[in-house]
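Good day; I would like, with your permission, to put a structural problem before you. What I wish to show you is a protein chain and, alongside it, a tokenised description of its three-dimensional fold. Thank you for your consideration; the sequence and its tokens are set out here:
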Amino acid sequence: TVQHFRPWCFNECFSMINLTFPEIVYSIEENAFSNMKSIESIVIPEGIKSLGKHSFEKSNLYNVSFPSTLQ
């Protein structure tokens, strides 16, 4: 089970449109999902404690929900 997304892990991935993270994920590092031109919506669950710089930079997001646990 993935609990942590490392830097640049999905950089320039063009096939995802919607992304929902499982509740077990606790961190998304810098640029992990940057340059994803096809992504439109993400749901970041309660439990995520850190979101790195530029995690979703240059992505075409229309809808993002952030949890209250984000520090």
Remarks:
- Strands lie at 4-5, 18-20, 27-28, 41-43, 50-51, 63-65.
- The longest strand covers residues 18-20.
- The mean pLDDT is 88.
